[in-house]
Amino acid sequence: TFVDPSSTSIKNNDVINVLLIGETGVGKSTFINAFINYLTFPTLEQAQSNKPLVAIPVSFIITTGENFEEHTVKFGDSNDLNNEDFQHPGQSVTQHCKSYVIHLDYNDKRTLRIIDTPGFGDTRGINQDDLNMQHIFEYINDLTHLNAICILLKPNVSRLNNYFKTCLTQLLDVLGPNVSQNIMFCFTNTRSTFYTPGNTAPLLKTKLSSLPIKNIPFNKENTFCFDSESFRYLVAVQNTIQFNVEEKQEYETGWLNSVNESNRFLTYIRKQLNTYSLRNNWQSIRYAQIQIKHMIRPILESMRNILRNLILCSIDPLTNKFIKLCPRALDRPSAFCASCKRDPFQLKNFWISPDDAHDFQSKCSTCSCVSDQHSSIDYILSYDNLNSSSNEEQNKMTNLLDQLSCASIDFAHFLMNNISRSIKEDPFRMGLKRIIREEKQICEDHESNQLNLCLVQELEKLLITYEDQMKKKPSNEKQENLQFIYERIEAICKHSIIHGQMIAIHQQREKCKDNHHEIEITQNSISQKIYLSTEC
Q: What PANTHER family does the annotation carry (predicted)?
C-alpha cells in the first residue's frame, strides 16, 4: 500500500534503489506496472473493483475464447509515450532509463525506487546494446547507492541472449565484484511453469559459472517468480474483454502468488541485503569514461575562454579586465543545433555566440532540423567581467591552458584505446574543430572581428599541437594505469573554471531525473493518468 509522499522526507538512506535489467521484450515495463498493483491490491477482486494503476504505457495482444480471438490493448499516460516505442519490434521499447518511486507503508517509511532500463539484445545490434549500457551507467552514476540489481528473465527459454554475459560482466566491472551479492533474479509469466524458473534455470547456472566472478548467488532465496499475465487480465477486463470462469480462476491464483512474491521480494531486500555504496574506492574503465565524457565540454570551453583572455593580455599587457565563464544548469533535456543560426553579442570586443538550448528528447521540439545535427548539453554559459592582476592572472592562465591541453590528450587516448565500439572518433578533436567552425562563422558574419580572427589562429595552433601529440602516442599502446587517470580527473576538476561547469552538469542531471526521468507513484497520481483503448 501507499502513503502520502508529502508526509515522508526522502533522504538517500530512506530510498531502496533497485536496478531492473533484462533482455529486450522480457517485459520490464509490464513487470513494473504489475508490481505496483500487487503491492496495492492483495486480491484480484480488490483490483477489479478499482482501476489498474498504470505508471508506464504498455501495449500487448491478448487472446480469449475457444477461437483464440485477438484483442490489442494499449494503455498509459500519453505524456510518457516519448520514452516508450512500440513501433519497432525487436528494438528496446524503453528508450531511456526512468525511475518509479513508490512510497511503501512500512514502519520504517522507506521508499522504493525501481529503475527501468532499455533492454539488451536490441535488433539494432551490439553497438546499440553498448550505447544502452553506457546510458545505464551514466544514470546510476548520479545515485549514492544500490540495494539490488534485479535480472528479469522468462522461464523455459531455449537459450539466453549472448549479450547477457557481457551485460553482467560490464556491471561487475563498473560497480565492483562485491555487488554480485546484491543480484536477484525475477521471472515473469511463470504460471505455465508452475511458478518456477523452468528450463531457464540450468541455462542461467551455466552462464553464471562462465563469468569471471564465480560467487553470484542463484537460489530460492534470491529468486522470485511472478505472473504478469494476471495484470494483463486485469487491464483487459477494464476494456470489457470477456473471459470464462476457468481463465478467471487461473488469473486469481496467479495474482495471489505474485502478491506473495512481491512481499517476499521487498522483505528480502530490506532484511537480507546490505546497501551497496556507489561512492566506494572501486575504480573501473567505464566509470572513468563517464567522468571524462562529462568533462569534454568544460575543458574545451575553458581552453577557448583562456585563449580569449590571453589575447586580451597580448593587446594590453597592463589590462586587469578579463572574461569570466558563468555556467547555469538547464532544467530539462536539451541540445545545441549545429544548423540553427545564433546571434552573437560583443564582450571585450570579442563576438561570442550565445548558448541556444533546444528542448530535445527523442527529437527536437524547438526546430525541425534532423537529430544528428544536435548534440546534448547539460548547461548554458553566460559571460561576465573579471577583475584580476594582469601578470599573475596571465601566468595562471598559461599554466592552466598547458594542463588542460595535456589532460585532453591523455583523456582522448584513454577513450580511444579502451572503449573501441562506443567511441569511434576522438571527441576532443571533434570538439576543437566545432569551436573553430563557430569562430570562423562569426568572422564571416561580422566585419569588426580582429579579436575573433586571433582566436581562430590560436585555436588552430592548439589543434595542430593536439594532433601532433596524439600521433606520437602509439595507437596500440594501452593508456597509463587507471590510477593515473583517476588522479588526472581529480586534479583537473579542482580548477575553479572546470569545477563550476561540473557542478552545473550535476545539477542538470538531478533536475532532469526529478522532473523528466523520475515519477513518484501514489494511488491518486496514477489513477488519474489512465488512458485505455481496445482494438478487436
A: G DOMAIN-CONTAINING PROTEIN (PTHR32046), IMMUNE-ASSOCIATED NUCLEOTIDE-BINDING PROTEIN 10-LIKE (PTHR32046:SF11)
